[in-house]
Amino acid sequence: MSRERLMVGLDVGTTKVACLVANVVDEYIEVIGLGTSPSRGLEKGVVVDIGRTVQSIRKAVEEAENMADVRVQNAYVGIAGKHIRSLNNSATVSITRPDRIITAEDVRRVVEAARTMPLSPDVELIHVIPRQYIVDGQEGITDPVGMTGTRLEVDVHIVLGSVTAVHNLVRCVEAVGIGISQIVLEPLASAMAVLSSAEKELGVVLLDSGGGTTDISVFRGGDIWFSKTIPIAGEHITNDITVGLQTPIEEAERIKKQYGTCLVDSVGDDEKIEVATIGGESTKQVSRKKLAKVIEPRVEEILDLAMQEVEDAGYRDLIPAGVVITGGTALLSGIAEYIEKRYGLPARVGSLPQGIHGLRDIVESPIYATGIGLLKYAVETRDFVPTKRTRGSKGMLGKLFGWFRSFLRG
Ligand SMILES: Nc1ncnc2c1ncn2[C@@H]1O[C@H](COP(=O)(O)OP(=O)(O)OP(=O)(O)O)[C@@H](O)[C@H]1O
Ligand SMILES: [Mg+2]
After folding, report:
1. Rounded to whole angstroms, how far apart are CA atoms 20 and 77?
2. Packing angle between helix 234-244 and helix 288-312, nearest 10 degrees?
3. What CA–CA distances, in Å, run from 263 to 192, 245, 327, 329, 341?
4. Tens digit of pLDDT for each residue in 101-147?
5. Environment class of 88 (CB within 10 Å of its CB; exposed 0-12, middle 13-18, buried 19+)
6. Ligand 1 atom showing the smallest separation from residue 258 Cα
7. Distance from the alpha carbon of residue 100 to the mean position of ligand 2, in angstroms
8. How close is the Cα of 328 to the center of ligand 1, in Å?
9. What's the CATH architecture for 85-163?
10. Residues with Cβ–ion distance below 5 A, ligand 2
11. CATH code of the domain occupying 197-351
12. Overall pTM surpassing 0.85 (yes/no)
């Protein structure tokens, strides 16, 4: 029997908030609503201004609701920022019952054991993802329930975040009157949207470079092994253009998108662009090569820092599938070629996978990778930390606001 459900992904980024609404029938995802709004309350991926973040979320949600003609009640919400830490752990339990058949309760027990560790009070568990189960030494099992054995082991990937960062995000979403189905690590979501199973199997680095942060994650054997966020991305490139070409920030952003590239040698010496001056009253001519020369060193810095993290974590030689880059900064002309040349690895820009229907041509951009990934996550998850903050646990203000919205919509 097929089940039709409404799923919502809410990507609260440093540059924009994106709300994606989908109709899901079994694993068929049809995007029926998209709302975006410029994000004003975040810095480096974390909420620093609750009021402004609430406004941005509300606007994006309402736009998506209007397009889809539904009311959003719960959402899968992405989280990132350099407060995120991840680690790998494992645990073992014995199966002592006479029949030795492994039950769901045994699986729960072993995962519970793997996630039990001393945590400081300012840290919160975001994910506990079982990578593999091992039954009496036999590795690579994804679902041991029903198998026979005496010893059940699990390898898990654990993601931790700062309590304050998580709570501020939760408060913002709940203030809009939306319950949180689950908080999801953004790179995990983006990976679901843009990586192929073959890449994840072989070994690949995913870089999600947005406005304020670049998230780095490594996948191998089908699962996530490493993730880290560095607080440097597209906004820094724009700032450099503002300074380097003496132009207002909006103009710097425009010319970056329209004429920017990180391949200095690909630009002819005689190519000129019109750029607004600081006062904005007039324009001046600047060589496009100069623009590229401002962009290139910053791109180099972002990518070098990211690849250094991969190296430090010991994965540099374990990524034959190379690098996939997504997020808005992946749209910078020449970036995949740049990565290939600089690191000698295959590289491509990741946008949309197969299997997404509906507003495909609109959401087929690296900018929506996280939002789409949240929907895929919602459909495919096998995570063990569903948040306790599920439906109905909204604060009083959130409940009132939710009620008010239903009232307005009749
Ligand atoms: N064509 C383009 N060329 C270069 N950069 C681009 C282009 N289009 C968008 N960007 C940049 O992408 C960034 C926004 O990306 P994205 O929407 O993924 O960020 P975000 O998710 O809001 O931020 P974050 O993930 O860092 O919190 C901006 O810095 C923007 O300038
Ligand atoms: Mg983002």
Report:
1. 11
2. 150
3. 29, 18, 19, 14, 10
4. 999 999 999 999 999 988 899 999 999 989 899 999 999 999 999 99
5. middle
6. 1
7. 46
8. 3
9. 2-Layer Sandwich (3.30)
10. 13, 210, 370
11. 3.30.420.40
12. yes
